[in-house]
Structures are given as structure tokens and as C-alpha cells.
Write a structure and sequence with these properties.
Helix content of chain A: 25-40%
Oligomer: heterodimer
Structural class of chain B: mainly alpha
Largest sheet of chain B: none
Strand content of chain A: under 5%
Structural class of chain A: mainly alpha
Number of strands of chain A: 0
Chain lengths: 101, 190
């Protein structure tokens, strides 16, 4: 697999694109019919939000939606590396290590 | 969900600093590298899995990243975990670029489940697949931000340090990623 893992390579600048053309930091993407209010985003960011703010008719459906998605993302958060992968990696470490002093 | 008991290597990795471990490896104690693999493989695997959507590809990128890190260990400056993360994150982005350029799509149907409990797998399978499909439509920067925030559970400050950008820019990316995902999934899951 082609895989550039140059450890000195900086993370891609947000505006850099493979073609070299400029892209905005957040490319155009779809938006929901009714975008979530800011309080919902702050709640998703982990802030303590007064229940009244999340219980409005506007916010409630977004909270319900994200509660479902969060169940899935939390499950993914508990996924572990497949068993035995550490042994496979250790077996493949055949290149010599040179101290660069 | 696969669960693994704590291993002696995991306990050891928690009590010794990365710098100390690296010194040992560079002094010829190759086996000490296992401590770094044990310490960082789970969060890095989650990142690769979230970015690629494929367990096989995530494993491949994880392996290549650790091997590359081992080969260049003498060049580490600053935090090892951030350096290692960048190797893996670049590997994920390279894979995404290649897969888009060649218009190859992978099928996950024959991949092993991410979860150990078959009942949970059945119940959650649809949302899992739909979320994977929706994530794959996002630009890499938005997908990366969403995965780091929502799947890896990192703070914006930590993300900013790892990605060398600002908290404000990352909040905007996560916000945009949420909007895009909701636009794709809300009809079915609202």
C-alpha cells in the first residue's frame, strides 16, 4: 500500500489541497433542514448546559438525534486493537535503529 | 466490542516515560518498543478505523506507522505521542487520497465486526453502517475533526496541538461535520 509516513511531514495545512488549489478551511458540505442551535453544539462539546436550553422544541429533536449517534460513537471509543497485532508489529521491526547523536 | 485484559506491558508503559523507553530502545533494547505499541495502539487504531472505515486498512496503517516510528526513533523531537500521531494521521490521509483518486470503494460486509456482542451488533449494525457511509462523504479535515472529538474523545486543546491548528478552526470543523452528518442521517434517525 502506498503510504507516506514521513514523520517530519507536518499535518496538512487546512487550506492545502492535493491539487495545489486553495480550499476553504471548512469545505462546503450539506446542512440539515433545521441546523442545530448553538446550545446543542456546546452540549456536544461537553459543556454543562441548563436542561431548559436543551428542552426547547427547537433543540429537543437535535438532542434526540445526537443521543442516538453518540451511542454509536461511544461504542467506537471502546474498540481495541485486534489481538496479536502488537506481536506482528514487533516481528516486523527488523531494520536497525541508529542513534543520531 | 473486543475487550482485552490489562497486560504487564500496559502497566509498565504507564509507569515509565516515553523518553525513558525511547532511550532504552536506542541503547539496543528492542523489546522496549512493545511498551510504546501497547500504550498507543488503541487510540491510534481508533483514529485509523474512524478515518478509513476499514478494520483491515486501519491495521495496515497502524503497523506501517509503528514500524516507521521505530525506524526513525532517533529523530523524535518533542512529544513522542504527537509525533507518532502525525505519522499515522498522514498515513490515513494518504490512503484517502489514493482511494479517491482511483475511485476504489471498499466493502465492509466481509469485515469482522467491531463489536464482540452479536446482539449489540445486530441492533447497532444499521446505524454503524449508515454512520460509516456518511463519514466517508465528508472531506478528510472534517472527518478527522469529528472522529477525534466524538470517537476518540479528545479535547479541542489536545486536537489543536496534534493537528497544529487553532481551537477555533477545529470547533468550526466539528460543527460543520455534525451539520453534514445530520443532513445525511436525520431523515432516518430523527
Amino acid at each position: 500500500m502506498a503510504h507516506n509516513t514521513d514523520p517530519h511531514r507536518e499535518p496538512e495545512a487546512p487550506a492545502a489541497h492535493a491539487s495545489g488549489s486553495l480550499q476553504p478551511d471548512t469545505p462546503e458540505t450539506a446542512v440539515p433542514v433545521m441546523p442545530a442551535p448553538e446550545s446543542v453544539h456546546r452540549w456536544l462539546d461537553g459543556e454543562q448546559i441548563p436542561p431548559a436550553e436543551l428542552g426547547t422544541a427547537d433543540a429537543e429533536k437535535h438532542v434526540r438525534f445526537w443521543a442516538k449517534v453518540n451511542q454509536e460513537t461511544e461504542r467506537r471509543h471502546r474498540v481495541h486493537t485486534p489481538r496479536g497485532l502488537d506481536a506482528i508489529i514487533m516481528e516486523k521491526l527488523d531494520a536497525p535503529v541508529v542513534k543520531d547523536d | 466490542m473486543k475487550t482485552q485484559p490489562r497486560t504487564p506491558a500496559a502497566d509498565a508503559a504507564d509507569t515509565v516515560s516515553d523518553e525513558e523507553i525511547i532511550e532504552r530502545i536506542l541503547a539496543g533494547h528492542r523489546e522496549s518498543f512493545r511498551l510504546l505499541v501497547t500504550k498507543y495502539s488503541d487510540p491510534l487504531y481508533r483514529h485509523a478505523l474512524g478515518m478509513t472505515g476499514s478494520p483491515d486498512v486501519a491495521e495496515d496503517i497502524l503497523q506501517v506507522s509503528f514500524i516507521k516510528a521505530y525506524q526513525h526513533l532517533g529523530e523524535v523531537r518533542g512529544r513522542f505521542d504527537a509525533w507518532l500521531f502525525r505519522i499515522l494521521a498522514n498515513g490515513c490521509k494518504d490512503w484517502l487520497k489514493n482511494i479517491r483518486r482511483t475511485h476504489v470503494s471498499y466493502e465492509e460486509d466481509d469485515q469482522p465486526s467491531h463489536y464482540a456482542n452479536p446482539d449489540e451488533d445486530l441492533d447497532r449494525g444499521e446505524l454503524r453502517d449508515d454512520l460509516d457511509a456518511a463519514l466517508q462523504t465528508l472531506p478528510a479535515t472534517l472527518r478527522e475533526a469529528f472522529v477525534m472529538k466524538h470517537v476518540e474523545g479528545r479535547s479541542y486543546e489536545e486536537m489543536a496541538e496534534l493537528l497544529n491548528t487553532t481551537v477555533g478552526a477545529l470547533k468550526m470543523r466539528v460543527h460543520r461535520a455534525r451539520e453534514a452528518l445530520q443532513a445525511l442521517l436525520e431523515e432516518k434517525y430523527s
